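The instructor's notes for this session suggest beginning with a concrete chain rather than abstract definitions. Hand out the sequence below and ask the class to guess, before any prediction is shown, which regions might be ordered.
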Amino acid sequence: MIMNTPVLIIAFNRPQHLARLIERLRMAAPLCVYVAIDGPRDSRAGEAEKVAECRQLVASINWPCEVKTLFQETNLGCGEGVNAAISWFFTQEEEGIILEDDILPELSFFGFCSELLDRYRLEPAVFAISGCNLVPPLSITRPDLPYRFSQIPHIWGWATWKRSWQQHCMDIGDWREELPTQTLWDRAGRSLTGTLLWAGSFDMIRRRQVDTWDVQLVFASMKSGQLTATANVNLTENIGVGPGATNAFMNASDPQPVQHMDFPMINVPIEVDQRADEWTRIHHFHSAGRTRQALALTNSFFREVVKEVQQVARQESSLATDQTDSSR
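After discussion, reveal the predicted structure:
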């Protein structure tokens, strides 16, 4: 089958990972490949040589395809480097697959993304597509279906449209105005720990404590209320988690073993699988521990956020009690 969906590879200083990804991509043979490589840091000895090696590896993309490159001369960092790469990609494409250099996809991942990009191209309720499944089958509401919908766009092998990426913004300093507490509560599964988890994450970005881009992607998804089609079998392997990783972290159970996706895929109702999202919140994002960290923050801005979230939680609990009493 001809792979018409364009693919963006985002790389930096790990030529051993990039070489493996290119060899996997060779088996799918996409007709158009974009490669974005961040520049080296002057403070890191030997990094310029590793970045140069990554650039040289682009020449090994020699199956019949068009190759476009974006090589940064200076280091943009974990956040702006990826943001610039994806933004560059979507100045030239309306949709596509995005792979960082440490993500090794199973071959059916490409068909999964391509089919759903086509299926939901004009569907405003769908934000993105993720081939990464962290959740065990027993914690998925309908594991017999090929995919489900999540409020969280997981980015260990994903795809999206230009229309969705245009909602992404690195600066979310006004996140409280753009995502009111009640809306955040609803998007975060109507969970106290879930709401405080994401409120704390968004506020870390506001205070510039973390150099990243993916928290802003979650914010964009929550703000719009759009959902991500997420494979119910895991289609990608993260080979970059370990001592050399930048931001990635993983539990012993994350993700599920890599499997093959069967085709054709039936249509799935566009609604959040709350059970699967709850598992992810508790076991992958460690919402209880991160909520304790959030509650320990002393800045007045975030203390007001906590008060608002706790008030919404109390109102929710009171309403549930009244409904129970009235049904007796």
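Then share the key points. The chain has twelve helices and ten strands. The two ends are 60 Å apart (CA to CA).
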